[in-house]
Predict the structure.
Amino acid sequence: MSIKVKDLTKIYGQQKAVDNISFEIRTGQIVGFVGPNGAGKSTTMKMLTGFIPPSSGEAWINDLELVEHSLEIRKHIGYLPENNPLYPEMYIKEYLEYVAGIYKLGKQTKTRITEIIEQTGLTVEQNKKIGALSKGYKQRVGLAQALIHNPGILILDEPTSGLDPNQIIEIRNLISTVGKEKTVLLSTHIMQEVEAICDRIIIINKGKIVADDSVNSIYTHLKDKQITVVVEFDKNIDQEKLEQIELVEKVARIDDKNWLIQSTSDEVRQHIFNFAVHSGLSVLSMQKKEKSLEEVFQELTK
């Protein structure tokens, strides 16, 4: 199932929480939806799930217009909100039976609950009340309710929030597995999570989309295209000579033989090699230092 958003806007009083955004997500994609706090992520997700209406603009879920077909669309969406709304006094199975009843699973209910408990790793805790569960297992219950009706689209708002490293890996693996067959829109502040499981990243800042690309290509949106090369020579050398190399913009010494060289062109590496040859030096190593996804995020949202 696909998601299509065109000029979607949400205004609260004088504030534009979401400002005229457009994007498309095709079936089978896992898309990371990231941005600073207050950027408009949760508001966008609430509009796509029918919890709040847009102020203007349109959205389609599998070619069904969002406002006109709101109830039909909800049948095909699994939603885990940022604040996981659970009933602590209910047992896990009891709660999942309740959710299954909302989606009118009928005779499939018992089988589906057994499947989803196993799939989300709830088997060892399945006879407990939700209020007695750890934060990690409560998140699993939230995922279980989002998945129980086998939706074509998953919208997950901070699904690994508050989990320990082992739990994060387990939930990531689960999302990766179910994402092969579903369309997933995933909000997170953890950039490693985006790199680990997402095909694509959409960065939103102050209600506007500032980047939308594959995880590998998101670096092309940087305003500062500067690259850093780490070079080790076999001998000591004067910094002034390195600064005179063509395309070199900045040089920083690590130690006598190791240097950080900055440029805006990949061709600087060839010029460094040529310089070494002409100067009777050997290049023992040369490595292009890529910016991290965190650095990309900071540059696009600062």
Remarks:
- The radius of gyration is 25 Å.
- The chain has a mean pLDDT of 90.
